[in-house]
User: Which sequence fits this backbone?
């Protein structure tokens, strides 16, 4: 998962693209192809439009309040980043918020992967009574997002005494039909002979899972982890409901306190944007640096 | 396929136990409870409740606010989907010219997917800010119309739609590009040899091949914007101004969690469940359709 590996992967994909494009390759020999130039210009314009809001937020996070309020708006960075980021860090208790978000993202992603691998293993490699019932029960969870069962799920967590705890924040997120299906699909592609040979050698099921399936699944695990990490980091409704102390809040919710509401607050949008930058950096960095896994995870978990 | 290899009486149950425990405790039981509560009326303190049959549903169906929230949800969901999938398709249409650097472009548009919609909402809140934002400032050169989302419902709606679509456009583009790479080069060559220009190639060759992906993305975007949209509304508009951005999932929360009207909230949950079941069924039709070009 190192950076060179990712770059290598990208180069390989790019190579694949080029290899598929004899037409474009032939064109490149000739004089300037204005069609291609226009297409690149349009694509760059799309990229600029998509990047602008983040650029703007970044610029604001480096300005003083006076600069933020200036008209016409200043669209170039200023030099007050350190001030704003320190302010935001202290005022929002950012260290604690980021830690909580990291715990939720990592624990829920790992938990999902582990319990999904186990149940997919059971469904694929065993015949047992109620197998299809289990399969359908897992499938149906797709149709029950938190939003449609909020009040009663809250009551379950209350009854367990899990309000305001890490287990309350993470365990209910761990059931995942998509992850289970992904592993099931993957196990089905592994030749039967592998399991047969393992059995002949007297390898038990758990040993087979641990020594054969897990090593073969690393690419899937990495891809899924990236997608689930981002999903966990960006949870909103669930942590909003079941945490009420500041110490247990996650960063996406903690930001709300910093929004300068019109009329009542000093318009410190610079501090707000500095806090927003810190909250969005981890998941965005994960996408950028683990892009190959991320795209694989996105595309495969939808099969 | 016969694949049963390991024989063990209790191990498979042990293996599925964690998944099923979470599923039953946090999915089935609450869903069942919502269904039950939707037929009951509970006092605000939760100490008494009595069976009222379909009264909660009847009340919802005559409530103009509930209708407004349905309409708002549809505007929001179709707005996000139209904008996100439309932009994705636009980029895909450009990319079919088979130019270099597609993967670099993908990188350059994919990262907003990591930004939580509520954070995107906060950023756009400032971009749209009536006094300090850059967008009303630029628009003031074009028109005297005041784009104040605090006062005008449709501007607030546009704000949350754009913010949400922004986080999802890269996802759509990534899927379209994956679909483009899966189209055999020979098909495109054949079209070129037959004299099809770029526009005709897209319209008659590429788009039909991408249509299963388009269909799939429309459904996924609808599901996401129906159910994943609570955060952006809660963080940015709180359903306002008036009820202009009060969508169904926000109303469930508000009636149940803030208003403590459990029966009404549960009835809304049941209706949402019906919607998500319908959409998921649609999504899984895609699994069969997807094989068009393989």
Assistant:
């Amino acid at each position: 998962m190192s950076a060179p590996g990712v770059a290598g992967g990208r180069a390989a994909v790019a190579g694949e693209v080029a290899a598929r494009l004899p037409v474009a390759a032939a064109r490149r020999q000739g004089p300037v192809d204005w069609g291609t130039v226009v297409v690149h210009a349009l694509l760059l314009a799309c990229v600029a439009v998509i990047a602008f809001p983040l650029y703007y937020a970044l610029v604001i996070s480096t300005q003083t309040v006076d600069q933020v309020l200036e008209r016409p708006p200043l669209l170039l960075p200023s030099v007050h980043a350190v001030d704003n980021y320190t302010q935001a860090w202290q005022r929002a208790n950012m260290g604690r918020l980021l830690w909580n978000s990291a715990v939720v993202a990592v624990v829920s992603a790992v938990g999902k992967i582990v319990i999904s691998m186990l149940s997919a293993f059971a469904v694929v490699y065993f015949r047992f009574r109620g197998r299809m019932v289990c399969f359908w029960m897992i499938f149906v969870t797709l149709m029950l997002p938190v939003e449609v069962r909020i009040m009663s799920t809250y009551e379950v967590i209350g009854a367990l005494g899990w309000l305001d705890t890490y287990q309350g924040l993470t365990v209910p997120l761990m059931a995942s039909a998509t992850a289970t299906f992904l592993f099931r699909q993957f196990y089905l592609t592994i030749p039967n002979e592998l399991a047969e040979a393992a059995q002949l050698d007297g390898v038990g099921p758990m040993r087979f899972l641990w020594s054969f399936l897990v090593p073969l699944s690393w690419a899937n695990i990495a891809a899924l982890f990236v997608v689930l990490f981002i999903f966990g980091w960006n949870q909103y409704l669930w942590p909003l409901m079941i945490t009420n102390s500041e110490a247990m809040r996650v960063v996406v919710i903690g930001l709300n306190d910093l929004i300068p509401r019109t009329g009542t607050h000093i318009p410190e949008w610079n501090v707000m944007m500095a806090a927003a930058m810190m909250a969005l950096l981890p998941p965005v960095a994960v996408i950028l640096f683990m892009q190959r896994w991320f795209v694989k995870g996105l595309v495969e978990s939808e099969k | 396929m016969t694949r049963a290899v390991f024989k063990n009486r209790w191990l498979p149950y042990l293996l599925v136990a964690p998944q099923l425990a979470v599923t039953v405790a946090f999915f089935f039981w609450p869903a069942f409870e919502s269904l039950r509560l939707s037929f009951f009326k509970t006092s605000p303190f939760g100490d008494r409740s009595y069976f009222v049959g379909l009264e909660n549903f009847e009340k919802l169906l005559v409530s103009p606010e509930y209708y407004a929230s349905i309409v708002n949800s549809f505007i929001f969901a179709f707005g996000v989907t139209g904008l996100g999938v439309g932009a994705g398709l636009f980029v895909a249409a450009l990319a079919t010219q088979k130019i270099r650097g597609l993967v670099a472009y993908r990188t350059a548009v994919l990262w907003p997917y990591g930004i939580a919609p509520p954070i995107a909402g906060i950023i756009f809140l400032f971009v749209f800010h009536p006094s300090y934002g850059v967008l009303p400032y630029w628009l003031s050169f074009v028109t005297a119309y005041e784009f104040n989302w605090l006062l005008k419902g449709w501007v607030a709606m546009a704000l949350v739609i754009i913010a949400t679509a922004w986080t999802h456009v890269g996802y759509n583009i990534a899927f379209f590009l994956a679909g483009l790479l899966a189209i055999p080069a020979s098909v495109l060559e054949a079209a070129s040899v037959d004299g099809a220009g770029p526009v005709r190639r897209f319209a008659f060759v590429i788009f039909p091949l991408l249509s299963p992906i388009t269909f799939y993305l429309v459904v996924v975007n609808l599901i996401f914007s129906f159910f994943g949209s609570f955060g952006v509304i809660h963080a940015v508009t709180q359903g306002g101004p008036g009820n202009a951005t009060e969508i169904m999932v926000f109303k469930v929360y508000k009636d149940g969690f803030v208003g403590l009207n459990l029966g009404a909230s549960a009835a809304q949950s049941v209706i949402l469940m019906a919607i998500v079941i319908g959409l998921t069924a649609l999504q899984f039709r895609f699994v069969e359709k997807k094989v068009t070009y393989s």
